[in-house]
Amino acid sequence: MKTAGVIGGGAWGTALAQVCARAGLETVLWAREPEVVEAVNARHENSLFLPGVALEPEIRATADFANLADRDLVLAVAPAQHLRGALTAFAPHVRDGLPILLCAKGIEQGSLKLMTEVLAETVPQAAPAVLSGPSFAGEVARGLPTAVTLACPDEDCARNLSEALATPTFRPYFATDMIGAEAGGAIKNVLAIACGIVEGRGMGRSAHAALITRGFAELTRMAVALGGEAETVAGLCGLGDLVLTCSSHQSRNMSVGLALGRGETLEAALAGKLSVAEGVASAPAVRQLAARLGVDTPICEAVAAILAGEAGVDEAIARLLSRPLREER
């Protein structure tokens, strides 16, 4: 593989374009915003979504999907709720067997579909893969050490994609369980909002640790019910991503929870943010999907209720703490 395309000119898409360029791939970044295209091509920066980070000068930006048609692999990094539209627009330019690496972490509202299902419906001729794991865009873009999961049902393809993207500071571990990798990335965003609420409410580190642990139990149950493997989410794309997202104010999802825990409204918590907090859109989808699958997810349920205005923060916390005692396993 010698060339790469990246769909999505936000912070994470730009960071992954950096990874591709540093791995020696000729890289084209598709962005919806004209100002992003202009800034990347003229000044080698994305001042809108990733200010202060010098981009590799080899990265070329475009607003035309046709410029990605000849790529050896494509990374789809549009937000989960916009991925279907982006892939539908890109589909006419996709040849049979093109590896499309899904990098958005979420569950589609309405359809309750994972991103691999969205890809299968919009670009069935593509070869699907999933990239997920503990990774902040700014750190990856600056070249700080990062390890992620790269999942593809074809083990040789997973290995080839991992080798194509690997750099001294970006280390993909390959796997074959795409569902587990997707579930971990999507559900941890909802749990990060819960952790932010706990911290914003000043409930202490013990409560924070308990929430991460019990949240991981919910995440694992959901992943297995969806058809994934518990072993997958015990790795970077589940536990690793959960620990990072629930432990740093850099996390967009945790920052939303912090604001809610401090008494702000959801509208105020989201005001002025250009980057997407995927957990806000995924929470109601996770709740609906858990109900459909018959999976007990009380923390995700509480977050969805708070975001929907069905329960206040203190009421939702009280419900969680008054649940019947049970065996931990």
TrEMBL record:
Instruction: State the pathway, as annotated in the record.
Output: Membrane lipid metabolism; glycerophospholipid metabolism
Principal EC category: oxidoreductase
Q: Where does NAD(+) bind?
A: 8-13, 137, 252
Protein's cellular compartments: Cytoplasm
Entry keywords, A to Z:
Cytoplasm, Lipid biosynthesis, Lipid metabolism, NAD, NADP, Nucleotide-binding, Oxidoreductase, Phospholipid biosynthesis, Phospholipid metabolism
Q: Which domain of life is it from?
A: Bacteria
Q: Which residues form the Glycerol-3-phosphate dehydrogenase NAD-dependent C-terminal domain?
A: 177-317
Q: What EC number(s) are associated with this protein in UniProt? A: 1.1.1.94
Q: Where does substrate bind?
A: 105, 252-253
GO BP terms, alphabetized? carbohydrate metabolic process; glycerol-3-phosphate biosynthetic process; glycerol-3-phosphate catabolic process; glycerophospholipid metabolic process; phospholipid biosynthetic process
Primary localisation category: cytoplasm
> Where is the Glycerol-3-phosphate dehydrogenase NAD-dependent N-terminal domain positioned along the sequence?
5-157
SUPFAM superfamilies tied to this protein:
6-phosphogluconate dehydrogenase C-terminal domain-like, NAD(P)-binding Rossmann-fold domains
| Reactions the enzyme catalyzes | sn-glycerol 3-phosphate + NAD(+) = dihydroxyacetone phosphate + NADH + H(+); sn-glycerol 3-phosphate + NADP(+) = dihydroxyacetone phosphate + NADPH + H(+)
Q: Which family does it belong to?
A: Belongs to the NAD-dependent glycerol-3-phosphate dehydrogenase family.
Main function: Catalyzes the reduction of the glycolytic intermediate dihydroxyacetone phosphate (DHAP) to sn-glycerol 3-phosphate (G3P), the key precursor for phospholipid synthesis.
- HAMAP family from the xrefs? NAD_Glyc3P_dehydrog
* The protein, known as: Glycerol-3-phosphate dehydrogenase [NAD(P)+]
Q: What is the organism lineage in this UniProt record?
A: Bacteria, Pseudomonadati, Pseudomonadota, Alphaproteobacteria, Caulobacterales
